[in-house]
From TrEMBL:
<protein>
    <submittedName>
        <fullName>Glutathione S-transferase</fullName>
    </submittedName>
</protein>
<feature type="domain" description="GST C-terminal">
    <location>
        <begin position="126"/>
        <end position="268"/>
    </location>
</feature>
<keyword id="KW-0808">Transferase</keyword>
<dbReference type="GO" id="GO:0006414">
    <property type="term" value="P:translational elongation"/>
</dbReference>
<dbReference type="InterPro" id="IPR010987">
    <property type="entry name" value="Glutathione-S-Trfase_C-like"/>
</dbReference>
<dbReference type="GO" id="GO:0005737">
    <property type="term" value="C:cytoplasm"/>
</dbReference>
<dbReference type="GO" id="GO:0016740">
    <property type="term" value="F:transferase activity"/>
</dbReference>
<dbReference type="InterPro" id="IPR036282">
    <property type="entry name" value="Glutathione-S-Trfase_C_sf"/>
</dbReference>
<dbReference type="InterPro" id="IPR050802">
    <property type="entry name" value="EF-GSTs"/>
</dbReference>
Length: 268
């Protein structure tokens, strides 16, 4: 039995925070899910699975209206799911017994790091390092919020100058901080080894790269990409660190194909 089970739309770089951490720590993590559109036809539960037509009829009382990302969709969420996941969102993680729910990708990643701390100290070597790691994770939440609003607006065709400007400012603040943290020529964000701060950073930047797939939508609004051609020159240490992480043996299985696909869209 897996130490942690995660249910989410896929692919999702925020889920990969946990799977990357699991490779470092030797923790057994199971991931269940499908594309966002397909999740409309799943039972949202610890035992998440595609619904049969018979189940859809029998469980009609469980139907709830989706919100962020699945706005207006009819989603089948069990009472047990809502008890474990009070905000009703994905990614949703469960402990081995299926009763303890863990929500928000950074917290799910932290759970993996705690479960495997004896094998690899992803959460730092002492309280000070752990708290500095938390600082990076907290800052990432601010960037992630604006990033999500921006990417959803791009995919939904509702992006405008105000949303773009907010995301651009959020990226500049986040990237400037990461650049400063890597000066002078540090190899990791905290301490002398990779931590969950680095994992979170890599996943959030990979997710933001979905902007490359929405160039046409930006052009229709007269907007330029935030990840423009010269952005690597503005934050050379950050992008060098990202490139190293993408090639790392524990990051590459999840991130490398995803990043390469998005970079090919940028080149096109």
């Amino acid at each position: 039995m897996a130490a942690l089970r995660i249910f989410s739309y896929l692919p999702n770089p925020r889920v990969w925070k946990a799977t990357i951490a699991a490779r470092f720590c030797g923790v057994d993590v199971e991931v269940r899910g499908a594309s966002g559109k397909e999740l409309r036809d799943w039972l949202w539960d610890y035992d998440a699975h595609p619904l049969t037509e018979q189940e859809r009829t029998a469980l009609s009382s469980l139907a709830r209206t989706g919100r962020v990302g699945l706005t207006g969709a009819q989603l089948f969420k069990t009472d047990a799911f809502m008890a474990a996941q009070p905000f009703g969102n994905v990614p949703a993680a469960f402990g081995a017994d299926g009763k303890v729910g863990i929500f928000e990708s950074n917290s799910i990643m932290r759970a993996v790091a705690r479960l495997g701390e004896a094998k690899f100290p992803l959460y730092g070597h002492d309280a000070y390092e752990a708290s500095r790691i938390d600082s990076f994770l907290d800052v990432s939440l601010v960037f992630a919020r604006d990033s999500q609003i921006y990417l959803l607006a791009l995919s939904g065709g509702t992006v405008d100058a105000a949303i773009h400007a907010r995301a651009k400012d959020a990226f500049a603040i986040y990237a400037s901080g990461i650049e400063q943290a890597l000066s002078p020529r540090r190899e990791t964000l905290v301490g002398n080894g990779i931590s969950i701060a680095d994992i979170c950073f890599a996943a959030e930047l990979a997710l933001f790269m979905n902007e490359h797939a929405r160039t046409e939508q930006l052009g229709k609004q007269g907007l330029e990409k935030i990840l423009h051609e010269g952005v690597r020159d503005e934050y050379p240490l950050m992008f060098a660190h990202f490139a190293r992480l993408v090639e790392h043996e524990h990051f590459a299985p999840d991130l490398k194909p995803y990043v390469e696909k998005l970079l090919s869209k940028a080149a096109a």
